[in-house]
Specification:
Blueprint: E1 23-29, E2 32-37, E3 41-43, E4 52-55, E5 66-68, E6 71-75, H1 78-82, E7 93-96, H2 102-116, E8 122-135, H3 138-146, E9 155-160, E10 165-171, E11 174-179, E12 182-193, H4 197-200, H5 204-221, E13 226-229, E14 233-236, E15 240-250, H6 257-264, E16 272-273, H7 277-289, E17 299-304, E18 307-312, E19 316-320, E20 323-332, H8 338-355
Antiparallel strand pairs: 1-2, 1-9, 2-6, 3-5, 4-5, 4-17, 7-8, 8-16, 8-20, 9-10, 10-19, 11-12, 11-18, 12-15, 13-15, 14-15, 17-18, 19-20
């Protein structure tokens, strides 16, 4: 235990999601979870094997991205330990603002123009739906994420700080899993409803988007060791499906997780290709213009006794006190159309709302 909490909450896994000092939770493997209570001590680096959460913004500008907790637990099955969601659906209410697509449409034109000029081959645009928490609390949002029915397929996560800010969700995408000298990661791109799987598997635009992502990631990983890739498969997360290609890399040496983050983030599924400084600057400008939370799509992870688990924070809710943001992104490639992309954004937002037990 590094420091004493400032709140009256006891050091228990259940309190990690409701303490005023902040808390964190992440699934790190089948039936394995790491839970932590704040206050967190930020650090620029941590010793190998030291338990610490990693959280950065999308632009990787946080000077001390490691967060060493006051207390932590490695659990085999967290739902009981973390407490039930408890709050009935009717008691958790968010008032949503109308979502206009004009800003997204304007940025989409810019991206498509750049594609036509050969400036990039793929880019991700994201846009948030904004709301306000009318009843309920952030701890309930976090518990609902961790209790989600697809917890064994997705990677539930939650992180909150002492200022009443945080995020929670059920991401299908990992940035990487590090076990000893073996790195595992994935290419995840292409989205459709589960009911559309037959058409999705033969959709030329969806396949092209995924293969652009997979090929880029394969080349990026080659600098780290021998790369083994699996076939393109369909990942079903309950209501939504994605194309997924899994990769293993034999590193042959111990690697600093922060160096891996800088090498792999943003993933081709969340970023822009080619991954140049000029193109990344354009990507950051689009996100700022569309008021995307600075940690949406950013890396969140934990180093613990079993290794390092790092996820891409998508499919979730972000909050600052009672202000709520539900961002969603879509990959733009040659052939992308406004109606199709806007529909994909809606599919992802509806999946998140249903996962949290929220009404439209």
């Amino acid at each position: 235990m590094a420091t004493e909490p400032t709140s009256s909450e006891p050091f228990t896994p259940a309190a990690a999601l409701s303490t005023a000092d902040g808390g964190a939770c992440l699934r790190v493997g089948p039936g394995q979870w790491v839970v932590a209570c704040g206050p967190f001590r930020p650090a620029a680096s941590v010793a190998p094997g030291e338990l610490a959460f990693y959280r950065n913004d999308f632009a990787l500008t946080v000077a001390e991205p490691w967060f060493i907790p006051a207390a932590s637990w490695e659990l085999a099955a967290p739902p009981a330990a973390l407490g039930e969601p408890a709050t009935p659906a009717s008691d958790l209410v968010i008032g949503w603002e109308p979502l206009a697509r004009d800003g997204f449409a304007g940025e989409l034109e810019t991206v498509l123009a750049g594609l036509g000029q050969g400036r990039w081959t793929k880019a991700v645009l994201a846009v948030p739906e904004i709301g306000r928490l009318i009843s309920g609390d952030a701890a309930t949002l976090a518990r609902r994420a961790l209790h989600h029915r697809e917890a064994s397929v997705c990677w539930p996560y939650a992180f909150s700080d002492r200022l009443g800010r945080g995020c929670a969700g059920m991401t299908p995408e990992t940035l990487f899993t590090l076990r000893g000298e073996t790195l595992q990661t994935m290419a995840l791109a292409g989205t459709a409803r589960t009911a559309e799987q037959a058409d999705f598997e033969n959709d030329a635009k969806q396949i092209r988007e995924h293969e652009i992502v997979a090929d880029s990631l394969r080349r990026r990983l080659a600098a780290w060791g021998r790369v083994r890739s699996g076939p393109r498969e369909v990942l079903n997360i309950g209501g939504l499906i994605h194309f997924i290609t899994r990769f293993d890399v034999s590193l042959g040496r111990t690697v600093d997780p922060h160096e891996l983050v800088k090498a792999l983030h943003p993933t081709p599924a969340m970023g822009i290709l080619p991954r140049s400084e000029e193109n990344l600057a354009a990507l950051h400008a689009w996100r700022q213009q569309l008021s995307v939370p600075c940690t949406f799509g950013a890396p969140l992870g934990v180093q613990w006794s079993g290794g390092m688990q790092m996820v891409v924070t998508i499919r979730g809710l972000w909050w600052d006190q009672d202000a709520i943001s539900l961002p969603a992104g879509c990959g733009i490639v040659d052939g992308s159309e406004l109606e199709q992309e806007w529909r994909e954004l809606g599919l992802k937002r509806r999946w998140v709302k249903q996962a949290f037990g929220l009404d439209e």
